[in-house]
Design brief:
Helices cover 74% and strands 5% of the residues. The protein has 213 residues and is mainly alpha-helical. Strand 1 (179-183) and strand 2 form a beta hairpin. The radius of gyration is 19 Å and the shape is globular. The longest helix has 27 residues, at 122-148. It starts with a helix and ends with a helix.
């Protein structure tokens, strides 16, 4: 197989994984079905990818690349507060529209970095790091601009951006569930609807609060 053919087949496998992720979520996309959708034998997947985790990480980079492109479209010349709001809105909209993106990110965050290194090649980790840094980098750039202009009260823009990323992912998972819980009468649990719009607004409000805007 030529290098071009190999890369084409890798793209087709990732395309198949992405399609199943979008349809069912990352947790319900077994390798067997990914291979079937790609029109290949399951064994061929492991000729291209060191592990199932490696395939899933590369699929996650697809989502991250799309989100990074969306965040990069925000106006870098706008006041930092306006750009941060735009970034938070786009982040929330993307997460609500792509639940499997949340699966991927939360799954990666649950795994210690040392464990990920054991199952994913250095090249794939580099691609993941680049994709994530493109997303978070827009937030860091925006927060730094706000600090320079005296609009934001943040000591470490890089840490603030990463914390904002993590908190937004957790909030968007609540939007995916669509249900909250509280203590009701007699101490029994009371469930209530959580509209996606409410979570979206909360992500924006938390972004502003986290930088002291």
């Amino acid at each position: 197989m030529t290098m071009a053919a190999r890369r084409r087949q890798e793209r087709e496998i990732v395309d198949a994984a992405r399609a199943l992720f979008d349809e069912r979520g990352a947790q319900d996309a077994p390798v067997e079905e990914i291979a079937r959708l790609a029109g290949i034998n399951k064994a061929l997947i492991y000729r291209h990818f060191a592990s199932k985790e490696e395939l899933f990480v590369l699929t996650a980079t697809r989502y991250l690349d799309e989100l990074a492109a969306s965040l990069a479209e925000t106006d870098a010349g706008a006041p930092p507060r306006e750009r941060l709001v735009a970034c938070a809105e786009r982040f929330a909209d993307y997460g609500i529209a792509h639940p499997a993106f949340l699966d991927c990110c939360l799954s990666l965050m649950r795994r210690p970095a040392g464990e990920l290194v054991d199952v994913v090649s250095e090249g794939v980790l580099l691609r993941l790091g680049l994709a994530m840094s493109e997303c978070v980098g827009v937030l860091v750039e925006t927060i730094r601009a706000g600090v320079r202009q005296g609009d934001f009260a943040v000591e470490d823009p890089e840490l603030a951006a990463n914390l904002l990323w993590g908190k937004a992912l957790g909030a968007l998972q609540l939007a995916r569930l669509g249900v909250g819980v509280a203590r009701g009468e007699g101490g029994l649990p009371r469930f209530f609807a959580v509209p996606a719009e409410a979570v979206r607004a909360a992500v924006v409000a938390d972004a502003l609060a986290s930088v002291g805007a």
